[in-house]
Design a protein that fits this description.
Length: 439
Amino acid sequence: MKKLIAAALAAAFCGFAQAAENVTQQVTLPAGQASAHPATLPYLPPQEVVLKALYASPAIHAAGSLVRAEEANRSRLEAGEYEWNVRLGSQRRRSNAVGAPDERFSEWNAGLERPLRLPGKAADDAALGAAGVALAETAYGDALHETSRHLLKSWFLWLRESAAASQWEAQVDLLSRQAKNTQRRQRLGDAARLEAIQADAAQAQAEAQAAQARLRRENAALELRRRFPGLPVSEPANAADPAPIDGRASEWIEAMVEHSHEVGIARGETQKARIAASRAGRDRLPDPTVGLSLSSERGGEERIVGAYVSIPLPGGGRRAAADSSLAQAAAASHRETAAIQKVSVEAATLHQSATAALTGWQAAQTAADRLVSAAGMTARAYELGEGSLAEVLAARRLANEAELAAILARLDAFELRYRMMLDAHRLWADEETRRAAAD
């Protein structure tokens, strides 16, 4: 019996190694020979349901409000703060020259003035407002993308906990039947009381694990319902095996970096900082103020009409502000470079993890199949009077752990694949389509 178990375990691990080699060969196929994306997306809810749940998120509404705020700020910058000013004044004149009668006059003056924006500043202000709107729209896409990531992560967390609960429930049923058979054999005198106790203990342990798994499943489902109302928390029926990653790694990495909102925000901040630096440089030359004045003196005997120009004299503060803006633009440029490096590393790591997850699942599934077969052979041998119940329970435990590991590895492979598709904007439509659907 021990030789039989050893042979089965050896076959399982040999199958594990062979599966890893086979999947490695599959993953290294050229992009043209790799399998295409399936028509449906296994383990995912329908796209229209997902989009509806995403657009109900408060974070998306907040990001949309910030876009509208930046649009209003753009209009403010385009109009400028160059407004007409009206000055009104009144005074009393008293003349008491020596030898002249004492005279009193009512006088008034009025003025109309407006600062003038020098050439080039209006274009910079308009560009600064447009950059702010573009940055807010990128932030909107980032909020939508991060919410999508959280939905995907929460969804697969629930799938894992649901699969674990189902696996442990199946293990409880299996050990329950084993315990009943052992009790029957004990009554017939074919099994010792110790074996009955062992069978009951194994069943109790599995029931405890199943109860904990059910609790984790309910908690994961509760989070989904609370965070994404309207998302149906039910296991999808379109389950399938993971497929090899199609396309070259460089193509995936380039797509993920290109569509990265973190890079987009850093790039938008760099552009906005450069425009602000240009605007601050132009402010070293102050804007003039032109005006017209009208006054009445000596009770209306004299009327005066004039025009004037007021020009501030620039000081060191304007030069310092321009230097500060240039330094901030340089810092933003360095942050953009750092963001590109960071996202590139994360994209390469994600692609490598998705590829390795496929290999790991195939190997884990092969090992699970062999261990399940070994457990069945061990149980059959025990029924024929060979071996012990302890060997049966150990084989059952190994088989259950292997099956659970294979299920979780399958879900990991799908989640990493979908995460990569989401970062490359190949899952749940792109921002333009989703924004139009939301509007």
